[in-house]
Every structure is written in C-alpha cells, then in structure tokens.
User: What shape does this take?
Amino acid sequence: MKKDYEFYYTQDGSVGLYSYTDEDVYHSKYGAVSEAWEKFILPSGISKIINTKDNINVLDICYGVGYNTKALMSYVIKTDEKYLKRKNFIIKIFEKIKKIKNKILKNKNNLNLDIESIDNNNSADNSKKLLLPNESIQDEIISKFNIDCLEINEELVKMSPFLKTILTPQEIYVKIVPKIFDCFDTYWKIKKKLAKLSTKYMLRNSQNIRELLDLKFNNDYDEAINDYKIHKYVSFILIDSLIDKYKHGYIDKSLNKKLKTRRFRRYFKNSAIKYARFKQDFRYDFITKLNPLAFLHNIYYEYLSKRYKKMKFNDARKLFKLSFYINDARKSILDLNKLYDFIYLDAFTYSKAPELWTVEFISELYKHISPSGILMTYSTSAQVRNTLLENKFYIGKIINEKTGKCIGTVAAKEKSLIEHPLSNYEIGLCSTKAGIPYHDPNLNSSKDEILKRREYDFKSSELMSSTKYLKVRTAQNDNNIEDTDDEW
Ligand SMILES: C[S@@+](CC[C@H](N)C(=O)[O-])C[C@H]1O[C@@H](n2cnc3c(N)ncnc32)[C@H](O)[C@@H]1O
Assistant: This one.
C-alpha cells in the first residue's frame, strides 16, 4: 500500500504530520498547537475586537488538519466562558440586591422608612441601575466567527477533528520514564549503543523525518510550551460542520480504513470518532422519522454530558460558522467575496509551494483583507516579505513574547496595526536578489513554471546579492557607521 502520511507526537502533546507526497513536515516538533497559538492567534490582536464586532471573518489558507482554526476556536470559547462567568456573577449580585430591596420594602412600615418616596424620587435611576447590568450584558455579545478554510487535501480536513491534541497519561508515562533513566550513566551508554543500532535498522523515513524536523525548526522555541490548549468542544463542533457538509459521505471507505489502521490508531481520539460515526449513521437515517433524543441520549451522556447539561456545547457551537473549500486555494479565493479580519497563510515553504507565495496570489489576499485586517504567516524570508511589500501591504515581525525571537511576519493595509516594524537591515534585504518574487499571472501555472520564471528573473537581475549585502552591512558596522534599526 502506498504510504501518504506519518504521524508524530510534538512536544506539547499534539500530533504532527509528515507527508510522503509533499516530502515535508506540517508542524513544528516543539508543538503543533503551541505554534498555532503563537503565530496566528496571539499576534492577531483579536482581544481588541472580539467584544466590539458582531461578525468576524477569518480565512485559514492551508487548513491542513486545522490547528490554526482549532486554536482560534479555543480562544473564542475561552473568552466566552470568561464572559459567561462574569455575567453569572453580576446577575447573582443583582438578584441579591433585588431580594434585599424586597425585604426592605416588606418591612418598610415597621422600619418607618419612606422607601417608596425614595424609590419614587429616584425611580428612573434605580430601575435603570437594577436593569442596567442585564441589559448591558445582553448587548455585550461575543462576536460570531465565520471561518473559511481553504485546503486542497480533503482527507486531511475530514481527519482533522480526530487527531489528538494532548497526550494521554499512558503516553506521557512512556515519554517521561526513559527521560528519568537518562540520568543514569550506564543506562545512557546502553541507550546510545541501542540507538546507534536501531538507526541502522530503522525505517529510512523515520530517520528522514527527524532530520527534517531538526533542520526546519531549529531555533523557534527554547522549550516545549504547554500553556496553549485546544478546547474540548472544538473537535465536536468541527464534526458537526463536516457532517453538515458531507452527510453520509463524511467517514467514507478510505477514511474509515485510516482510522482503523493499527499504525495510526494511537494518534486518534476515540470519543470523536464514535461521535462522528453515530452522527453520520443516525442523524440522516432516523432523525426525521423518530425522536432524535432517544438516539442522541447515549452518545451525549457518554461524551458530552457535563457540557450538555450546562447547554454550553450548544452555545459554543453557535459562535462559529465553518465553511470548507476543498480546492487549490488559488481557485477558492476567486469564489470568495468577503473581507477578512484575519488571514492565516500557512502554506508549505515558498520553494515547495511557490503557487501560494506569488505576487498575484498575495494581490488576491490584499483584495480580500478588510482595512483593519491582519495577515499572518510563519515565513520570515526576504522573498515573502518583498512579495507583501510589492502588494502595498505594511509589514512587521511576529515576536514570540516568551523568547523575544522573531517567529513570523504580519501584514496589514493600515500602518498603525504593525506592532513590530522591520529594521532597516531587514527592509534592505528585501530589495536584494533574495527578495525577487514569484509570478503566476493567471493563477494557474505549475510549480515548475513558477520556479523557472523566478530563476530567469534572478539571473537577469542587476540587484545586489544578499551575500554582498551582508558583507557591505558588516563592513559598515566595522567602520562604526551608525546602523540604527529605525522603524519603517
Ligand atoms: C504546512 S501545511 C498546513 C498545516 C495546517 N495549517 C495545520 O494546522 O495542519 C500546508 C497545507 O497546504 C496544503 N496545500 C498545498 N498546496 C495547496 C494549494 N494549492 N491550495 C490549498 N492548500 C494547499 C497541504 O495539503 C497542507 O495541508
């Protein structure tokens, strides 16, 4: 059987993916979930608009197995929960105040207090005060999120709710125990020998994946970051949306085979698979004929009971409208006519997927971003940055708050939205040969055509090479020429 994927646990307990077809890893070994939070959710400034805008539009380009969308949904649900807690707290206080007021009213004769006159004098104000919190809470709704997910590989989208985003206790045990033993010298020596032997006989590809991961994500994180989680409702909301899209065809033969494969099983969430199977089998066969509650009872009580009793799951579900576009993102983007508040651009590196980093594709993104919108990408390359600049975007850096390192690029139509502008050196680098962009005039060229076109532009360009630029800058620094990292 032709292999297409390999899974691996990343350091935050979420499952990462390697694709044999693309010969590339999809997620950082330091944490697929952490990466999504740090590169796409926290730098977006979402906290500033979540309570002020009714509808927030998000475009997730290269949804893959959906970590960026999942992290966004988790952020939104968490914010909603905080807001609900506050709402309940305020309501309780005002119920208490009402009770006290009623008590006082009952005893007003005994107390000989002219509360009524006080009430009447201030009736407008008091009633307003008592009603105000409830009314203001109703006004203060959390925005509804329309998330459009573009992905070329349908199977990944279908599989996305099932991938584990956290290790089970047994898996943690298996990971930790060898680390404890590492402390012992003898064990370390034996382990080293065994490791050498096992690499010799190891499957060629698992060695490749490890090397690739080391190569790609060498300096992004200092340690595994465990603060970022995916909310427990997210998988179930995704399943509901995917069942709506695919109906009986959601878990088809080929996906079913994957979910059952021994090699893969430990990476999937059993509860989510059961929920999806139940929904697929029963929702469309019986739901219209029989009382659905009878069928849903078991599954909800087994997997969603606590949440369902509180009706929170349904509330959370209402916060999102998810749409999946399974096609080349270059085609899908032409069918979309919204203006997006957030765009996540998470394509493979520019040399592997040049079609999603061309001047023409980025120009489409410029047309689709709202005036106050933010585009985020993990790429820090001069070429990608220059492509954004050529499209009149203002650009800046994504800085990891914990490590202070630059982990990506943000782009916006509005200059004031850029929190960490590029330094003079970085801007200069964009104008060297390294910044020469890809072109795809009709948004339909093949990967090779795009690469060849750039090769030609590169060879015929008279721009300074990035190596020479580096030398000139170093010489300038050596000569103490002031090199201010002025804001751009
Ligand atoms: C780096 S991975 C994205 C990972 C993803 N954000 C996640 O959370 O799993 C790149 C994704 O781009 C998809 N892709 C590649 N070429 C594409 C294209 N032309 N249009 C849409 N998606 C594409 C691949 O199938 C892959 O899932």
Confidence is low (pLDDT under 50) at residues 113-139, 218-225, 306-311, 481-488. The chain is about 55% helix and 15% strand. The radius of gyration is 27 Å. The pocket of S-adenosylmethionine is lined by residues 26, 62-68, 150-153, 156, 328-329, 346-348, 353, 355-356 (CB under 6 Å).
